Structure formats: C-alpha cells, structure tokens
C-alpha cells in the first residue's frame, strides 16, 4: 500500500525463496518480514534530503515526464520506485497530485517569461496554424509563432494547442485565435499566418484585420502533384502493387538474400571463382554480375528494402519509386531464381511476381517521372524547414519549377488550356479499389476502381504529366510576379537582384519597397519626435553649436542596399542583416517582418506529432487544460533557463 493505493505488484510462492518479496516490502513500504512497520528504523538508517533538495529532484523528475511525454501515473510504478530507492534512498517519490502541482507551477512561471520575451524582442510576428483531432475526438487548434529577435536569431514559440468547440467553423476558429493573440498581447504585431488550404481556416484568417493569409507551400505542392499525376494513375497503382508485394516479410527476406549473395560474390570478384563449384542459384547471380556492367553493387551492404508507398503523401510515393528503381535488377534476379525452385510455395510466388512485374517501358517511365518530380521533392523538403528563412526563397523556387515544365508548342499550350481542375481528382487523396485481381481485396469505400492487370499505356505519358503539372502550378499560383509577392525576395541579400523575373517586374517590386520604406520611416519619425518633445524644455542654444559638424545628408537606404554585392546562397541572410542593421536602420525593420515568415505550416504538424504521442488511444482522459500546459512546457522549455522557479 502507499498514498495512491496498492502498488499492484504480486509475488507467487512456488517453493522458492521469498527474498524478492521481503526486499520489496522493506525498501518500498518499510515493512519487515514479520509484517511490522519499520518507518522509525528507516529514518535512523537512511539520511533524507533537505526539503530544498527534495524539490530540486522532483523538478528533474517532472522535466523527464514532460520532455519524454511520460504518463503522470508513472510515479506509481513499483519498478521505478525501486530504481530510485537503489539510486538515491533519500529521495521521496512524489504522488501524482504533487506532480500535477509542479507542472501547474512551471506553466505559471514560464508563460509570463515568454510573454515578456515577445514584448521586448518581437517587432513583428508570423504564425502557423492548423487543426488537429485527438483520439478522443476532441478538436484542437495548434498555433506556433516565429519572430526575429534583437540578435537576428529566428525564434519559434508554441503559443498554445487550444481546445476548440465543435463545429470547427471559421467563426469558432477566429474566436479562439483572437482570444489567444489577446492573451499574448501580440495582435497588432501579427503580419502573416501560414496554414493549409482548408476553407474554414482560410476564411477565418481572411476575416482578420491587417493579417495576410499564406497557403502552406508543402500542402499546395501535394495538391499540384496529386492532380498532375492523374494521367499516370494506372502506372502508379501497378508500382504500388509491386511494392506492397515486397512489404510482406517473406518476400522482403527473399529480396535481402539475393542482395547478400550478390554482395558476397562481388567481394570476391577479383578472385578466381570456380563456377562448377557454385550452386545453380549462385551461378546465375555470378553470370548476372559478369554480363551486366551497369549493375550497381555499391549499396548491397545496406540490403535495401522497399519503401512503403503511402497514398496520402505524394513524397512517400516519390521515395518509394526511387528505391524501387534501385531494386529493379534484384527483383529480376529473384524471378529467375524462383523459377528454378520446385516447391509449391516458390512456384506460386514466382507466378504472382511475374504477373505483377512492371514492363520495361513502365520502368523507363517511372525513371522519367522521378526526374520530373525531384524538384518538387527538393522544394518540399527545403521550404518545410524551420531553422532558416524560407518565405524569401519560396517564389524563385516555384518559378524555377514552372519554367522547367513550360509548354514548348502551340499544341502543348492548347492541351494545358483545356484542363479543368474543378473536375480533376487527386491521385494521392482518393481511395482506389483494384478490380479483377484475385489477391487484391475490393475496397467497399473506394471512390474509384481501376483495372491494372494490363501494362500502363506509356505513350506520351511523361509529356502529358509535365503539362498537367504545369497547369496545376499555374492554377494554384496565378501571379508569382506581382510586386507584393516578389517583395520578400527583394529583402534577401542572396537573391535581391531578382534575376528570375524581368527588369520591369523587379522595378515594380522596388517601387513597392520604397512605399513601405516611407511608411516605416514616418512611424520611426513620429516615435522619435515624441521622445524629443519630452526633452525640448531642457534644450538651449549652446555657444559651441556653431563649431559642430553639420549632419551628413541622409542616405537612401534602398539604393544603398541594392547597390551592394549579393552574398552566396549558402550564407545566412540573418547574419548579414545583423551586421548591416546600423547602416540600414529602417530597412532592417522591414526585413525582420518578411524574413521571419514560414513558407510551410510544418511547425504545426510537428506540434501535433508530439500531441499524438501524449494523447494516445490508451491515454485520452487528460483534460484539455492540463494537456495544453504539458505541450507548452515541452515545446518552449528551450527558450528559458528553467521552467521552474529558482528555489
């Protein structure tokens, strides 16, 4: 027994020693082998810590619970208690209520610190926002905030993961968001909010005064590729069927064995090999290596496996196809070796593998598709980062992709103009059922049904996909050369020449920057004037005034900035601006606003990843308020010296 009830540990006596049970009772419950309490004896033999030290150790315990997302009831674990008893007998394990109190105190201590940090350091902030549903079907609004501090470091805070009442309408989202911003006192500092393309979220933000909505680039690229790849849907499903075949443990092991055989023979390639001494299967492997000079054995030591093709994320399909191409020769060899086997199991698998194997023209098309989609994958990965500036690179990246896909003939342009995206489906979002395949179970909830037993028609397929991708890019980003869209890139010293657009388009962006510069200059003047007014009564005409050097003519910050040499793309624009802030006091304030924006809402996704690890199917009764506190402390602990008040 303890303060939380029975510890739950039981021992069965099957004629063996009862030493473990006696040790458990003595160390955890202060009960001797006669069943008597011995608490006074423990006090004499074990020196307990001071109250201050006990609190410090409990704070360390709470840090572990928060950062590793441990359940609060872990403090009831008999094994954990025994571990602590062995490591530090003087430490008294707190109960669950004490842990909750410490977490409440940590939140109450940390939250004001971060609000003060935002007030003193952030001149402009941008947010990412998304909705998440827990295992208990409760809706939450995750809000993260980014800003550039006085040292020109990009900072990211988690403002909250707030319970939002159902239904999740634009009105309820806006109501919750405005309440959070008012609590943090940053409503007037918010410039941009990055979200996915959900209509309710988008409508909520567009109803906010003075705030710009930015669609998540990663999410939009997912839509682009999903619609652009529709012409290849048969090929995609055939490739997925082949991948799924090798996701089974038996087939995966066979593929690994083939790679191992090739690796072993490749290691001995410089030695004289007696083919007559090889088994039939190994002889076939040897002949393959001998006759195929393009066979790549450099990675066989890794024993590659297929990568799962998750239909809801296009980049998982891209990675799966890349890996499948590397395994093509091994799969062909596996078919050859299985065809020599006589056992029924091998014969059955060989027949199935031959049936679902891609044709040579399909392999060539997949190779071309991987090449076409590689820029999309690079853009998704780079623009989804959270340690560097992404917003300023977004537009030139998208323009580069569009230029690679641009139609080259009048017929191509006609094909593009006839694509109707309102009726075009998304290959990666829809549930698809495979028909006329004995080993594929029909999906009763599928929206579409496909027959994929015959090879895909690859004639002009790559060309159609390129044109459809181009049309999709132009559909979702209708005007990437507008001055307000180019302005963020103009403030990035790596690409400030805007070499990816025309001279006129660059000039229009510079004109817009001049307008914003004048507005910021007026705000700075009004602020400095109010300070000067307080000191006017103390001023007088000094007799030394005539000896002072007259102030130099004010420089045009924009002209001076644009005349400077670009920096390398690998350089950090924030480091550059930190060194140039004194030379461009007004322009640097504008740069801080734009360089802090995230092009993707992946910060919210990372927040929900932690949230899902805390609120699991077996741990879903935590109150939304307490859940919010734990997530807040876990995500923001790096911004303070300690989440606990100093003792």
From TrEMBL:
Transmembrane segments: none annotated. It comes from the Eukaryota. SUPFAM superfamilies: Hermes dimerisation domain (SSF140996), Ribonuclease H-like (SSF53098). Residues 557-636 form the HAT C-terminal dimerisation domain. Its main location: nucleus. The keyword Zinc applies. This is Zinc finger BED domain-containing protein 1-like. Keywords: Metal-binding, Nucleus, Zinc, Zinc-finger. GO terms for cellular component: nucleus. One of its GO terms (molecular function) is zinc ion binding. It is found in: Nucleus. Pfam families: Dimer_Tnp_hAT (PF05699). InterPro entries: HATC_C_dom, RNaseH-like_sf, ZnF_BED_domain_contain.
